[in-house]
Amino acid sequence: MSPRYAIGIDLGGTNIKAGLVDRAGRVAAKLARDCEPQRGPDCVISDIAAMCRQLLSARGAGLGDVVGIGLGSPGPLDLDKGLILKSANLPGWHNVSIRDRVAAQAGLPVVLNNDANAAAFGEFWAGAGREGGDMVMFTLGTGVGGGVILDGKLLHGSFANAGELGHMIVVPEGLACPCGQRGCLEQYASAGAVARRLTSGRRDDPGGRPRPQVADGRELTARDVVDAAQAGDPLASRIWSEACRYLAIACVNVQHAFNPATIVLGGGLAEAGAVLIDAVRDEFRRQSWSLCEDQPMIIGAALGYDAGVIGAAGLAWTSLSL
Ligand SMILES: [Zn+2]
Fold first, then answer.
1. pTM of the predicted model, to two decimals?
2. What is the CA radius of gyration of the chain?
3. Above pLDDT 70, what percent of the chain?
4. Residue 13 contacts by C-beta under 8 Å, 6 or more apart in sequence?
5. pLDDT tens by residue, 256-296
6. 39: how many CB neighbours lie within 10 A of its CB?
7. Distance from Cα 176 to the centre of ligand 1, integer Å
8. Ligand 1 centre from 186 Cα, in Å?
9. What is the 8-class DSSP label of residue 89?
10. Beta-carbon neighbours within 5 Å of ion ligand 1
11. What's the N-to-C CA distance of the chain in angstroms?
């Protein structure tokens, strides 16, 4: 019997998301639960295996109906050995052989990949990049993740760190990044960064006018930055236009490195929709070279928060099926 489904797992520091995904990238069933990584790998791995069993029983399926499991995990990872080396999102986890342990408990083969790469692969396989051609994705969330798909495959690099697009330097000697560099893209163009920059700017200039409309005590979000910028707030406007400008510069650099057909923008910041996409396209046209007329399409992501699950399942389909 040929398999009908792959299981996609999106392991994060906050949540574990799991889905049963068919060969066309459609989600037949999905589940989510808190991760609570401080409980340690044993509990979390048991939960993942239990979620796989729940998904199968929800559709009346057995192990023979499933090609395997794709697992997107925070890293850095050792892809050859199937290890989580360590992760800021999974405190205390070191050299966890997640691939083989999930495989043993679930009774299915497992393909492991970085979570941002899995989400990018999801958009390539079943989302914004499904029309084909090489694709690069920026996931503009708490930080900036990325993924590069060339000739239908995720680019891993010699040390499995290809696609760390958030740490491309866009501002020489710019803002310090926890990674140890200065001026990384994610310090300017992530949802977390724009909110943080507006918060600290307000603190430094409490009399600034006009103020964003925010209830007392609530933390500012990327949405507040967009709203305040559109209302003409000068600080928010500057932060927003810098985010768009530096993202466009990153897109120009990516164009020259990989020559993709499509650049996909996803994550919380991309929920601003056309406000972000149009500004990045305009700035891209301003900044990009004039030697070649063919330019990548810059478009928004299509799969939303399911991208990680769908992409992990897509990796299982493309890696494990005959
Ligand atoms: Zn960095």
1. 0.92
2. 20
3. 96
4. 35, 37, 74, 87, 88, 89, 90
5. 999 999 999 999 999 999 999 999 999 999 999 988 888 89
6. 13
7. 8
8. 7
9. T
10. 167, 177, 179, 181, 184
11. 13
